[in-house]
């Protein structure tokens, strides 16, 4: 059944209460989810617990999924919510410990005290930056400038690099295509909210 698409497995699970279909979805996304959580919490046991919690929520709320074709995006939206809740709870415990007479507690693991969107944003930017380094130098220069200065127009990038605008557009197109391809292959489902199902 590995050849079935996510939406087909979702329909099978909903229509027939097919436990086998859900099991395939579980095994298909268990690895990517474990990687997703571990990169954020840096603890395998916690990451495994969060994977289990994610699939419990998926199973409980599968009938609320309006578009089965967006299963992976929906799955990772649940994962984002759970990791955010994890960090909020970690912050609450630190603050409680500090109030209970442990003033050093607020100095522990400061990253966990940051707003979750900053933590996730930083981690995703590190992924993109590492992928940019794989690009040929000509494409890397164009994409890196756009990454560093999002408001910079392609015309300005062309002037900065002293190349034709047409060449700039081609290099940017190729760079984006490669990076999106790498993201989808190496981080399946995790960046779907950015790609919009493309």
Quickly list its features.
mainly alpha, Rna Polymerase Sigma Factor, Chain: A, 2 domains, 0% strand, elongated
Largest sheet composition: none
Relevant CATH superfamily of the largest domain: RNA polymerase sigma factor, region 2, helix turn helix motif
Rg over CA atoms: 21 Å
Domain module count: 2
Distance between the termini: 24 Å
Number of helices: 9
Low-confidence stretches: 98-114
Rounded mean pLDDT score: 77
Approximately how much beta-strand content do the residues carry? under 5%
User: What form results from the Cα inertia axes?
Assistant: elongated
CATH class of the largest domain equals Mainly Alpha
SSE class: mainly alpha
**How many strands?**
0
CATH architecture of the largest domain: Orthogonal Bundle
SSE arrangement, N to C: HHHHHHHHH
Helix content: over 70%
Output the CATH topology of the largest domain.
Rna Polymerase Sigma Factor, Chain: A
Describe this structure in words.
The chain has helices spanning 6-16, 19-41, 44-61, 71-99, 116-132, 137-148, 154-161, 165-186, 192-195. It is mainly α and 198 residues long. It has 9 helices and no strands. It is elongated and about 60 Å long. The chain folds into 2 domains: 1-114, RNA polymerase sigma factor, region 2, helix turn helix motif (Rna Polymerase Sigma Factor, Chain: A); 115-193, Arc Repressor Mutant, subunit A.
């Amino acid at each position: 059944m590995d050849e079935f698409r996510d939406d087909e497995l979702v329909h099978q699970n909903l229509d027939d209460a097919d436990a086998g279909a859900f099991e395939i979805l579980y095994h298909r996304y268990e690895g990517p989810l474990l990687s997703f959580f571990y990169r954020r919490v840096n603890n395998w046991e916690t990451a495994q617990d969060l994977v289990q919690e994610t699939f419990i929520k998926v199973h409980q709320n599968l009938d609320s999924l309006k578009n089965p074709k967006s299963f992976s995006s929906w799955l990772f939206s649940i994962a984002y919510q759970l990791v955010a809740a994890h960090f909020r709870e970690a912050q609450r415990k630190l603050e409680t410990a500090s109030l209970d007479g442990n003033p050093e507690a607020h100095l522990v693991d400061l990253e966990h005290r940051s707003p979750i969107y900053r933590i996730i944003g930083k981690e995703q930017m590190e992924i993109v930056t590492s992928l940019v380094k794989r690009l040929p130098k000509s494409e890397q220069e164009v994409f890196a400038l756009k990454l560093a200065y999002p408001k910079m127009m392609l015309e300005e990038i062309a002037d900065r690099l002293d190349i034709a605008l047409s060449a700039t557009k081609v290099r940017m197109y190729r760079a984006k295509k490669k990076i999106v391809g790498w993201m989808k292959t190496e981080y399946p489902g995790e960046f779907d909210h950015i790609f919009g199902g493309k």
